[in-house]
Amino acid sequence: MIFMEPPFTLELIAPCGMNCGICKNYLAFSHGLPKGKGQPSHCSGCRPRNKNCAFIKRNCIKVAQQQVQFCYECQGMPCEKLSKLDSGYQKRYHMSMVENLKDIKNRGINAFLEAQQARYRCPNCGDVVSVHDRKCYACGKVAQL
Ligand SMILES: [Zn+2]
Predict the structure, then answer these.
(1) What is the pLDDT of residues 31-89, one digit of tens each?
(2) Vertex 51 angle, CA 49 and 52, to 5°
């Protein structure tokens, strides 16, 4: 077993609870995939890119102005916008931002990052499997999550 750096960091967890490290657009970027037609677009992550959230910021002044680090700090969590995003992700990708946020709040960011690493580890090479297409962008294997 080759020792690998932990793939996820606090910087990769967006305010909405999304782990940018399992997004196919981030994995295409971090693995230097060719850009172009039929290829996923490249993204360096919500926080690294603009220090807030691509989904929520237009609808939420607290996220846009960085008054909160994570949406769980907001009393109204989940707001309508986050609920909509969350239910879409639960249906399509079997992942919940709201559950992620509760986990970060209850167990802390380090336990959350470790659990994410275990959940999305590629069974073939130990890299990361994307939540969007269950594909490992290091070895190309498509895994069941
Ligand atoms: Zn792999």
Answers:
(1) 999 998 888 999 999 999 875 666 776 778 888 888 899 999 998 899 999 999 999 99
(2) 105
Instruction: Please tell me the distance between residue 139's alpha carbon and the centre of ligand 1 in angstroms.
Output: 4
Element at 73 (helix H, strand E): none
Euclidean distance between CA atoms 5 and 8, whole angstroms? 9
Question: Which residues surround the ion ligand 1 when the cut-off is CB under 5 Å?
Answer: 122, 124-125, 127, 136, 138-139, 141
What pTM was estimated for this model as a whole?
0.91
Residue 23 within a domain? yes
In a domain, 101, yes or no: yes
- Measured in Å, residue 117 CA sits from the centre of ligand 1 at 13
User: Between the CA atoms of 21, 57, 93 and 19, what dihedral angle is there, to the nearest 10 degrees?
Assistant: 20
